[in-house]
Each structure stands twice: as structure tokens, then as C-alpha cells.
């Protein structure tokens, strides 16, 4: 059945239970309500902005928006783009698109005006719904997006070139739209993160969304009493599909518009959150804030917090060992996924396998996973034999890269999704991510896997973040360059870091060290294309002394 059926069932079974909460610590003054049911709650001295909706209200607003789209001429498989910051309106709008029979097209809120135009054109979107943060960017391209027939604005003071969502949506019926939806209907287009080039449009059917929801609930055992803290951007499959695990059981969720350690811990405490999905930098920041005395755990009510899990990127084992020493009663899980495989869960560690921290895990519920050589043969378990991670799942794999058959043919072969990730398998069948195939550094004929070097450098307690890239070298072709971001108040010289890296095999030691900020995109992945752009030419000067 389509994922929208769970929303309908929750509205009938738990009509007055809170479904969604938005907490925004950045807002310091009262502002207009988007919908009449929303209430502003201020708590001194921070004047925290909070609003919530019940399952009944959630479903009714999704229905109203679906009817609004149908009234605007939206038909089955019309593409409707969503460009909004995380907020209480986001998920009801998303579900309303699905209920109308249209295809939802979430857009990265960090896109430039030109990237927005590119993605709208690539996806053949005909409707764009956007928030106040994007008025300037949309104004730049409003005359360059001829396929867009309707522009809907969510917020106060609607710009002249758009139609007010707030004013229109309330006039439509809250009844269910008479649009039959089945699992094989097309449901959503997500965009790749662009870490290997310009974004690709990834097309999924409704059954993919259902596969993600069921897999997530099976992995983390969400019950109706759980409360999920959602911090990552909802345009990405990760946050949304983790939320869908709670949708299956009618569990509540909190959308937090802030990533500081204080606000994460305060929200877990005040909203009684039980499950938190973090990105690596946020987990690191929480631990650093505790170590530095910036936050005191005794000031928060955290006993109900049962599960912390991480995904979207390689997770350094040293970070999780450090986390478990501070939060020994937490369950922990690593989630591996990619947008082409409808997000997290295609491979996961499992809360019962904490002894295997460092692995991304085994095939997730309903998934198959293999690690293959270029000739298609399987790698040898326990032999540090590397190959490409390949996935197959009932309904979870994308249909295609929309409007890009050549790229589709490269990654979809005989029902398997070739991920482009290099991995190995241990003697117990657990998969370890080695690196992205395109990030492998070939130096003097040797393959270096940056993730392995990064994991080692992160064991230095003074290091906040690190990225290793290949930079050109006239003699070796490429050399490994480590860009290292130190913790606040900590410092290090190249000589000191080179001495520390003597713990690595000689051929894996970086030849160059740069102390600078490590940029990450909004899904927490290190922005290596940006780093190569900044520092790629640095290696052409001369090969650094081998340490």
C-alpha cells in the first residue's frame, strides 16, 4: 500500500495525539501563524518558538493541499518541487503532493539560483512551492523557468510573482481526494548530493517509500510511544525515511531548526525524545561541548533517550567508542544508504552488533548486499579483498536517473544497484566501507583509501574533523593531502601531525598537511570537490618530504 495510507490510519486511530512539533531557537519574536490551528509558545528567557499539530490536523492539511493542487490543474505524475527550510508545513505539503497523484520533487535548500533552475528543468517540474528564505533566488530565475506553471509561497508577505499558499489552502476541503494510488505509481524525485558532479534526478515509485518506512521500523523498533528528533534537512531521503519509521506506528516527531549541542540536548530533554539521528559533526560537537564544560548533562532529562544512530557518511569508530563512554545506556546503530536506494537501511550495523563498530553492517531488512570485483566475482571474506558494494532490494532501488539513460545503465545492471562505494567483507559477513571509488588516491601505483587515513587521524583528541584528498604530483601522479580542522583552542604543526601519523603504514601517511576548516554539505558529507578545487594545485609545486 502507498505510504499515504499510514497517515490516513494514524488520523483515524490517534486523531488528537501530537504528530509533529517544530522547535526553532533562532526566532525571538512572535510572527503570524501559517494555519489557524498553530499556537506560538514562548519560554523565558530564550523565547523558544514552538508549534505542533495532531495527526488529524496533519492529514487534513495534506488533503487540503492535494485538492489545491488538483484545482490548479495538477494531474497524475505532474512534478511538484518543494523548496523550503525544515518547518511544520514541510511534511504535510509533501504528503499532499503524494495524495494528489503528483510526483514530489524536494530541492536542496543550499542550491544557488542557477542550481534551482537546473534541477527544475531536469525534473520537468511544473509547480514550485517555496518559503521566504528563497524569495531572492527565485526572483533571479523567475523568467528562466518556463516549465513552471504555478509558484506557491509559504509564509507572510507573498511576493508579487507568486500565489499565497497560506491564503488559498484553507479554502479547500479536508476530505480525502478521490485519487487512487498504488505501489507501482511514480512518487518522488530526489537529487544526488552532487559530491561527484552536478546533481542527478533519482526517480522512485511509491513502493520505494514504503520499503524505506518498513525497513526503518524493523531496524529500530519504533513504537507509538517513541518520539523522533529530526534535525537533518527534510529534502534529503535520510531524515524523511527515518521519520517514516515512526509514521508506521503513529509515533511523534520533533523538527529542530538548530544544531548546537545545547539545543539538541535541551530539545531531547524538554520534548522527551527517544530516538535521535545525528550526523558525524553534530555528534562530535556534542562530545566536545561536554568535554569542554560548555554543557552539563545534569541539566537535562535524558533517561528516555534510548537510541542514537548515524548515517549519510563513513562513521569513525573512535567517535562511537567515545560516545558510548559518555552515554553507556544508549543503543547505537550505523545506517548506510544512498538516494538511489531510497536512503538509509539498505545496509545497517544493527543495535545488537555494537562489537562490530566500524562496519556499516549487513544487508538491511528486505535487502541483499554483495561486494564484487570488476569481473563480477565476489570478494573473499576476511582477506581484506576490496570491491564495489552492490545492492538489490524488493522495491527499494530507484527506477532510473530521470532523463539520463546513460547514467542509469552505468549503475543498474541485472537488477542490482552498483553504488560506487569500495568495500570489504570480514570473516563474519560484515561489510566495511573503504571509500568512494572516485575518491581513491593512486600514488606511485598504490591505492590509498582516504577514509582509512581519516579514521586514524580522528583518533587524535585535538582533531575536530579531517578530510584526505589526492592532489597532483609530478613524480607520483597523486599524493595524499590531509586537510585538518583542529578543535577550538587546540593547535598542531605539520611536524607534530607527521609524527602522529607514523602510526600508519608508511605508504598510507599523508605527504602534505593543511590546517583549515573542513567543509561539509547539508547532509553531513565532506565536500571533497570543493576541497579539490581549493587545494588541488598545491601538489604541483613539489612532492612533500615522505614522513
Give a quick rundown of the structure.
With 547 residues, this protein is of the alpha/beta class. The chain is 27% helix and 26% strand.
State the secondary-structure class: alpha/beta
CATH architecture of the largest domain: 3-Layer(aba) Sandwich
Instruction: Assign a percent range to the helix content.
Output: 25-40%
What best-fitting shape do the alpha-carbon axes yield?
globular
- The overall pLDDT average reads 88
What do we call the CATH homologous superfamily of the largest domain? ANL, N-terminal domain
Question: What is the CATH first-level class name of the largest domain?
Answer: Alpha Beta
* Extended strand count: 27
The major sheet is characterized as: 9 strands, mixed
The number of helical segments is: 15
Q: Kindly provide the radius of gyration, computed on alpha-carbon positions and rounded to a whole number of angstroms.
A: 24 Å
| CATH topology-level name of the largest domain | Rossmann fold
Give start-end ranges of low-pLDDT stretches. Answer: 28-47, 540-547
**Distance from first to last alpha carbon:** 59 Å
Widest sheet: strand order? 2-1-11-10-12-13-14-15-16
What share of the residues does DSSP label as strand, in percent? 25-35%
Number of domains: 3
Overview of the structural elements:
- The protein has about 550 residues and is an alpha/beta fold.
- The chain has three domains: about 260 residues, ANL, N-terminal domain (Rossmann fold, 3-Layer(aba) Sandwich); about 130 residues, Luciferase, Domain 3 (Luciferase, domain 3), CATH 2.30.38.10; about 100 residues, 2-Layer Sandwich (GMP Synthetase, Chain A, domain 3), CATH 3.30.300.
- The chain has a nine-stranded mixed beta sheet, with helices on both faces. A five-stranded parallel beta sheet has the order 4-3-5-6-7, sandwiched between helices.
- Strand 20 and strand 21 form a beta hairpin.
- Helix 9 packs across helix 10.
- The protein starts with a helix and ends in a 12-residue tail after the last helix.
- The C terminus is likely disordered.
